[in-house]
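Budget justification note: compute hours in this period were largely spent on complex prediction jobs such as the one shown. Inputs:
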Amino acid sequence: MNLREEISQFKPAPHTEEASVAVQIKQLSLSFSLQRSKEPLRVLDAINLEIRNSEFISIVGPSGCGKTSMLKIIGGIIKSDDANAELLGTVTVDGVTTVQAKAARLFGFAFQNPVLLPWRTVRDNVELPLEIAGYSGPDKTSRVSDLLELMDIRGFAQSYPHELSGGMQQRVNIARALVHQPKILLMDEPFGALDEITREKLNLALYELHRVKRTTIVFVTHSLREAVFLSNRILILSKRPAKVKALLDSPLALKRDENTQSGKPYLDFLSQVRNVLFQEEQKK
Amino acid sequence: MKRLLPALLFIVGFLCLWQLTVTIFAVPQYLVPKPTEIFARLGSQFTTLLPHLYVTALESVGGFLLGSLAGIILAMLFIRSKIIELSVYPYAIALNSVPVVAVAPLLVVWFGNGLLPKILVAAIISFFPVVVNTTKGLRSIDAEAFDLFDSLSASRRQIFLKLQIPMCLPYLFAGLRVSSTLAVIGAIVGEFSGADKGLGFYILISSYRLNTVDMFVGILLSSALGIAFFYLITVLEKLLIPWKTSKKSELFD
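Corresponding output:
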């Protein structure tokens, strides 16, 4: 079945699977010991969170509050045996530790900086995770092609990264993050450096991708509009050391499109998120 | 070709002006010979010159390979170990401020009149740009690129081969380009301090005889050697890192 058919025949996954837990975070605290200062920098403070399978969850909060660190902890990039990081609490992914989950290649990462390798074509860049995993299945090429198709960059397969615009590079970045079929896609402000128009296009592309693939997505962003448009749930963190301020369920219908952003549910939810986020600042 | 034309016209104009000035003011040949005399001598002496050119080229290439290899290995050690970097890097830099001309006679004392001391001088002089540039290249890699490879659970070997090496190639070649011309200088300097073959030897002997035409011929050939070497590295760079070509290197296209 090709991808277009797959999209048109798509039916939402049964609800039971949606509710199962993908990532379990219990009493997670993080501090960094900085050089020269005796006082460690407290970043995260007793965070509890359950990320459900197949959900799209956004993490928002004031800048520097530790959103990225949280994402890196989930992905096993910051781990308890790092020299300058002190990690308390537990994070389990599918019942195993983050380090085990990383070794099993359960994660796909997409950063703000697309970090495409300049000597590889778009196709070869997307193929990188398969190459690292030593994957040589018969569907190797078709997997890459399908993702290029899905991200609408098939025509650029043989181009080099420097020939692409920022938005195109991000599309490649996302395709690469998905090619090894990770269980969880971790995204750190992937559209932060893009202009508004490109950003909206990519938001739609990402929404479409999530709708088709049902990959669990943890999405860190500074843009509340983006978070509200895309998410099933939104986690709002406080200033550093970050605590969970609120975890909001999206009242928006699952189906979203270009018109969603002018609808009343969207605007109401946006102002709700905004109010929660700015509460603290207003009190002081 | 359009870029090359003005440069060609300039050199032709320069040579004509030289020829005219020397002719009009009747400058004696032992001071400044005419370009036509130099080129005529180059033609007539070419078979005599060829072995000298060969020896100097051998020394330059040998020294270049040795020096850059040492530079690359050391840069890789620096990245691996902070201790090695802290203890050795300052001296690697200090080595650059040691005048090679001063070291060359010592190397001749140690290793005799043969090829080895010249190769060593060329190696010492070409080592520095390579070690500095390669270290810089390996250091310049984005932390997010390492995070990406980490998130994919890449092995150290994979990170090295698929990320670090290709990432630092443009920097390495920037160093190699500088080293290639320096290596020729090193070989000539080495020959000045004691040799019986090579372009440096040829220039030195000609100066004892006040044979200015031969000196110019020697200088011309050693410059040509340096330029050819530099050009070779540039071509190699274009072949090895094609993704860079559209961005820079305005020279020689």
